[in-house]
């Protein structure tokens, strides 16, 4: 079962409620057990994702008066009781006005998770949550999943600790339009504009807030800190970025060559095209990847992509010299971190065994951040990978967040990581 353990390690943002674990239990990943595979593992993946999914109702549709509203405005809300929440907690779905990376008006969905009990004076403290990669298809919205995608793997412990969690889906997930995958600015805007919309939907929320995100969401949360340098929101207290901060050079080739991650090339091609319509995925993806590209980006989410991936050898998802495109270079520049000033302290958490976002790249990103004056604290975890670092570091995340709300000064790692 060596391959099964590898697949589990690369599960990325998603083991909540055992869906991927169940898939791996159903589908033998060991080469010696190929004869015992189900007749159609891809169909099994789709079925498992469907079992965790709610239908996308008219709630997610873009209202006709979007252009008459402003970023951060609440477009609609509804209580929703279908999630697996901590005892006594409640949820309210929200649809709100956000902006794309180019400043276009977009409708974005999400959900507000409200702790049990009576809010403290001043209202519930807010964690604006930015999820990791779920997929790029519209059906991959966490607010349309029974466990809100992360479940007990860090998300519900935040609610149980007494924080109202405002969990954006990112536009294009749930709502109409293309998801701008790995667009730091687009996802940061979705997070920032979710907060006033959530307050309008749930008056018991307080004013002060932090942002916390994992992987793709870690990119978004660090991006929030950079955008806040211009906005100067006095109620914003800081950012937690988990398993993010990649070294851009060679990143795509790294994912392409890593078993179990090649399907992310289709997500990336989708994201580049969403941002730069002149970009042609066929000039980036290999012929083998293109055969499944439409399915991977429209039919299913992470588990489905991984099931499709297993039929294509690692290292064969990209065309030769795919990264030489000017659109690819612009896209890479768009998710670089630590190059510009940021507002508030940033806690960066990384697993030293992370195969998706290698630790050397995180350290390099933190060094850049120190050089431009960002207040960064880096904590690394020996033996933890991309998924387990999110789960195992949750107590550290919550302790750091609690200190921000209590007004304690934040530390910095800059003197020790080098300038």
Secondary structure class reads alpha/beta
CATH architecture: 3-Layer(aba) Sandwich
Shape: globular
Radius of gyration: 20 Å
Mean pLDDT: 89
Give an account of the 3D structure.
This protein has 419 residues and is of the alpha/beta class. It has one domain: Alpha/Beta hydrolase fold, catalytic domain (Rossmann fold). The protein is 36% helix and 16% strand. The chain is built from 15 helices and nine strands. It has helices spanning 2-9, 19-26, 41-51, 155-160, 184-201, 216-231, 251-257, 264-275, 287-298, 302-309, 326-334, 359-371, 388-392, 394-405, 414-417, and strands at 74-79, 90-99, 105-114, 124-130, 164-168, 205-214, 236-242, 346-351, 376-381. It has a nine-stranded mixed beta sheet, with helices on both faces. Strand 6, helix 6 and strand 7 (236-242) form a beta-alpha-beta unit. Helix 2 runs antiparallel to helix 3 (41-51), helix 5 packs across helix 6 and helix 8 packs across helix 9. The protein is globular and about 60 Å long. The relative contact order is 0.13. Mean pLDDT is 89; it is low at 1-38.
């Amino acid at each position: 079962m060596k391959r099964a353990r590898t697949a589990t390690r690369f599960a990325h943002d998603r083991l909540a409620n055992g869906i991927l674990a169940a898939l791996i239990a159903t589908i033998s990943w060991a080469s010696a057990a190929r004869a015992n595979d189900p007749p159609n593992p891809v169909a099994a993946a789709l079925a498992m994702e469907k079992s965790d999914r709610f239908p996308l109702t008219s709630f997610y549709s873009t209202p006709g008066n979007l252009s008459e509203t402003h970023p951060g405005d609440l477009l609609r809300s509804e209580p929703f009781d279908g999630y697996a929440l901590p005892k006594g907690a409640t949820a309210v779905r929200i649809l709100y006005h956000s902006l794309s990376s180019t400043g276009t008006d977009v409708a974005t969905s999400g959900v507000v998770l409200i702790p049990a009990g009576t809010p403290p004076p001043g209202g519930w403290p807010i964690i604006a949550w930015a999820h990791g990669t779920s997929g790029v298809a519209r059906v991959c919205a966490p607010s349309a999943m029974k466990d809100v995608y992360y479940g007990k793997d860090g998300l519900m412990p935040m609610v149980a600790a007494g924080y109202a969690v405002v969990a954006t889906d990112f536009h294009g997930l749930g709502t109409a339009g293309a998801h701008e995958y790995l667009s730091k600015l687009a996802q940061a805007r979705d997070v920032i504009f979710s907060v006033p919309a959530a307050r309008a939907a749930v008056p018991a929320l307080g004013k002060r807030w932090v942002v916390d995100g994992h992987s793709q969401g870690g990119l978004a949360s660090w991006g929030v800190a950079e955008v806040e340098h211009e906005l100067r929101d006095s109620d914003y207290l800081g950012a937690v970025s988990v398993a993010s901060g990649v070294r851009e050079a060679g990143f795509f080739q790294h994912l392409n060559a890593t078993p179990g991650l090649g399907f992310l090339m289709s997500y990336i091609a989708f994201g580049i095209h969403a941002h730069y319509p002149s970009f042609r995925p066929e000039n980036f993806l290999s012929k083998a990847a293109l055969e499944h590209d439409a399915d991977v980006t429209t039919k299913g989410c992470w588990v489905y992509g991984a099931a499709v991936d297993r039929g294509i050898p690692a290292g064969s998802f990209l065309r030769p010299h795919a990264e030489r495109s000017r659109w690819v270079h612009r896209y890479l520049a768009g998710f670089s971190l630590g190059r510009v000033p940021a507002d508030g302290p940033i806690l960066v958490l990384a697993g030293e065994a992370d195969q998706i976002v290698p630790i050397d790249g995180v350290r390099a990103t933190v060094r850049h951040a120190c050089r431009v004056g960002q207040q960064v604290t880096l904590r690394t975890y020996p033996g933890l990978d991309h998924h387990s670092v999110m789960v195992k570091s949750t107590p550290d995340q919550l302790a750091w967040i609690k200190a921000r709300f209590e007004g304690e000064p934040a530390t910095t790692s800059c003197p020790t990581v080098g300038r």
